[in-house]
Write a structure and sequence with these properties.
Layout: E1 6-9, H1 19-34, E2 38-43, H2 53-66, E3 72-75, H3 80-92, E4 96-99, H4 103-115, H5 131-139, E5 145-148, E6 156-160, E7 164-168, E8 177-179, H6 188-197, E9 202-206, H7 210-222, E10 229-233, E11 236-237, H8 245-249, H9 252-257, H10 262-271, H11 284-289, E12 301-302, H12 305-316, H13 321-324, H14 334-340, H15 350-358, H16 368-382, H17 390-402, H18 406-418, H19 426-429, H20 435-444
Parallel strand pairs: 1-2, 2-3, 9-10, 11-12
Antiparallel strand pairs: 4-5, 5-8, 6-7
Helix pairs in contact: 6-7, 10-12, 16-17, 16-20
The chain binds glutamic acid.
Length: about 450
């Protein structure tokens, strides 16, 4: 790729980001990073009635949590002058025209066409209106909405980074409404204007935008701009094979509350829908380096929360202490984190294991023989150098003196020391338990 590449994530702040939006943001970030390019956040807030500042703040916070830091932020609501100027140019060039049909009238037209087995394409009847007709409408207080006049003579084609060669016949498409009668903007034209003006080289979004792209290809041409490269990713589906209600609302807050780490979401979403396996060992930079649109298929990408939980556990097992230090119980150091992390499926579970180290722990009831064994263990432990692998020394000595081996040797010690039958490797765990506390736990049996 030649010139610097620029991608953008362009959410409308009308709600919280869900997994599908997060994936779009991530793929755009990866594409930009792979090429040392720029990743822009563009807040598509032309719809003042539905856009909310709290959602803008949440979008920024979610991206920050994911580590997807934008190289710039733009807001459409700050750019109405730019849209107005482009609008005037396109109108003067005859590429925009005024229409007055109500939505009921348009519905009826569509139904008639469909009833005749024809595609429901807008019939362009407003193009026949004369200036006198427009004047009469204005005099009657009837404001127009505006459509973009597709060029029927120029077939629409692009090479989609995921879907391959695309062809659309503009005659089979309705001229899109770009501006409402109240002067407000629909999404399509401002987006094309911005992509052109902001030097966006690559538009990567969900395949629900394919038909918008067909229209926007002509908008770029009408604006005298080179269209960006386009790629449309197959949509996410839930495990049932369709976009579930849950998936449509599942966002960062909930995932975070469930103990999912951003690294896990990134590792899974970067590879979903591709032929590459999810690799928890790859961080975001490594994922960017190996990012390749050609690996994405056209089949729907199945998002399974059970996969996410598994990836999360695998990630937690490798998180370095510095990454988690602020999330750990007071006083817990690197050695304790490293001993405990292989037993976690999420960081939140660490408190339970930290309590095993600090105490108090409750041991099960032992029989008399085991109690005697534990008393012997306490005696041996009391004489050990705690700085020099006390677990190997303890079990080695007890094997000699008691003749116990295997489970009979290890399990009562684990139970007395931790109150549990399973858990972190005792060799790493025991030195973390204060010596006198360990001796007391053994002696108490
Ligand atoms: N605001 C649009 C959306 O959220 C942006 C689509 C795009 O061009 O990426 O659907």
């Amino acid at each position: 790729m030649s010139a610097q590449i620029t991608t953008r994530f362009a959410p409308s702040p009308t709600g919280m980001l869900h997994v599908g939006n997060i994936r779009t943001a991530l793929l755009n970030w990866l594409l930009a990073k792979k090429h040392g390019g720029r990743f822009l956040l563009r807040i598509d807030d032309t719809d003042a009635a539905r856009s909310r500042e709290e959602h803008v703040a949440a979008i920024r916070a979610d991206l920050a949590w994911l580590g997807l830091h934008p190289d710039g932020e733009e807001r459409q609501s700050a750019r109405f002058d730019v849209y107005e100027a482009a609008f005037q140019r396109l109108a003067a060039a005859g590429r925009l025209y005024r229409c007055y049909e109500t939505s009921q009238e348009l519905d009826l037209k569509r139904k008639v066409l469909l009833g005749r087995g024809l595609p429901p394409i807008y019939d362009r009847s407003a193009l026949a209106l004369s200036e006198a007709d427009h004047a009469a409408k204005a005099a009657a207080g009837d404001a127009p909405h505006w459509r973009f006049l597709l060029d029927h003579e120029t077939p629409i084609t692009w090479h989609d980074g995921i879907r391959g060669p695309q062809h659309f016949d503009p005659r089979q498409m309705s001229d899109p409404v770009v501006r409402r009668a109240d002067g407000s903007w629909l999404y399509m034209l401002p987006s094309a204007i911005d992509d052109a003006e902001m030097g966006v080289t690559d538009v990567l979004r969900g395949e629900d935008h394919v038909s918008n792209t067909a229209t926007q290809v002509q908008m770029f041409a009408a604006l005298g701009a080179q269209p960006p490269r386009f790629a449309h990713a197959a949509l996410l589906t839930g495990t049932e094979g369709k976009l579930s209600k849950r998936l449509g609302s599942l966002g960062v807050d909930e995932l975070r509350a469930e103990g999912i780490e951003p690294e896990a979401l990134v590792a899974l979403l970067a590879r979903l829908g591709t032929s590459d396996p999810v690799d928890p060992a790859l961080d975001a930079e490594a994922l960017a380096a190996s990012f390749d649109l050609a690996r994405f298929g056209r089949a729907p990408a199945r998002f399974d929360e059970a996969d996410l939980t598994r990836v999360n556990a695998a990630i937690v097992h490798h998180l370095p202490f510095e990454r988690v230090a602020h999330l750990l119980p007071e006083g817990m150091g690197a050695a304790a984190w490293e001993a405990i992390r292989p037993n976690l499926t999420q960081i939140g579970e660490v408190a339970e294991w930290w309590r095993v180290i600090t105490g108090p722990v409750e041991a099960p009831a032992f029989d008399a023989e085991t109690l005697a064994y534990l008393v012997e263990a306490a005696r041996v432990a009391g004489g050990l150098d705690w700085a020099a692998d006390p677990w190997s020394a303890l079990t080695g000595a007890l094997k000699e003196t008691t003749g116990r081996k295997g489970k009979a040797l290890f399990l009562p010690l684990r139970q007395a020391l931790t109150g549990m039958d399973h858990g972190p490797d005792m060799k790493t765990l025991l030195p973390l338990i204060d010596k006198s506390e360990a001796v007391a736990r053994l002696a108490r049996g």
